[in-house]
Amino acid sequence: MNNWSMKIWILGWFLLVSVACQEESGVQPVGDTVAQSDKDDQSDETDEVTDEEEQVDVPPATSELSYLALGDSYTIGQSVAEEDRWPVQLVAELKSEGQEMSAPKIIARTGWTTTNLIHAMDQEKELSARYDLVSLLIGVNNQYQRQPIERFTTEYPILLDRAIALAGGEPKRVVVLSIPDYGVTPFGQSADPERIAGEIDEYNRLKKQMTENKGVIFFDITEISRETKSNPSLIAVDGLHPSGQMYARWVEMVLPWITEELKP
C-alpha cells in the first residue's frame, strides 16, 4: 500500500469512528430536524398561552346610564321620601321603559344659591368625568334671599357650562327646569305672593334665555307649581315644598324628551 492509499484508509476509519461516537452519545445532528423540534416546542407553548387566555374571566362592561342632578331643595326633595324626589322618580320611570340606569348622583341641598352650588361642585370628590344625563334646577334661593339678580346672571352660566361639560360636552344631554313659584304655597301667601311671582318670572325669563343660548332644553314647570293654589295635594307637609305628586308631574313633562335623547 502506497502512502496515498494509506492516507485515504486512515481518513475513512476516522469518519466511521466519529459517527459511531455521536450515535452512542445521543448527539443530534444539526439541521432541519432540530429546527422542526423547536417549532413543535414553540407550537406547544403557543397553545398553552392560548388556553390560559381563554380561561381568563373578563368582567362584562356595564350598560347602565349615569345621571347627575344639580340643584337645591327642589332637587334633594325637601320634606318628601327619597323615592319621591323627582330625580329618583325619573330614573324609576326610565327603568320601567327598559332603560338601564344607575341611581342618580345628587348634588343639592336646601337653601343653596348659585354660589353654594358652585362651591359644592368645587369641593365634590366623587364627580365622574362624564354623565349620560345632567339636570340643573337652581335660583329660588337667590330670589328668596333678595340677592342682586346680577349675581345670578353671572353665576348661572358658570353652572350651565359645567353641566354641559359633565354631559360630555353635549348640550342636549342637559335638562334645565324653571324655578317654581312658592308664592302660591301656604308659606308664600304670608310673604307678598304678588312680589314673589313677579320676581320668579323675571328670574325664569333670564334663565330661559341663558339656557337656550347654550343649546340646552328649558322646561317650564312654574305653571304646574301654580296649580297648588287649587290643588293642595301638590304641596308637601311643610306647606312650602312640592309633594311627590307634583314631582311626578315634572317627570311626566320631561320624560318624553329624555327618553328620546338617551336612545343609542
From TrEMBL:
Residues 1-22 form the signal peptide. PROSITE patterns: PROKAR_LIPOPROTEIN. Keywords: Signal. Residues 69-249 form the SGNH hydrolase-type esterase domain. One of its GO terms (molecular function) is hydrolase activity, acting on ester bonds. Residues 28-62 are annotated as: Disordered. Residues 41-56 have a biased composition (Acidic residues). InterPro entries: SGNH_hydro (IPR013830), SGNH_hydro_sf (IPR036514). Transmembrane segments: none annotated. The keyword Signal applies. This is Lysophospholipase L1. It comes from Reichenbachiella agariperforans.
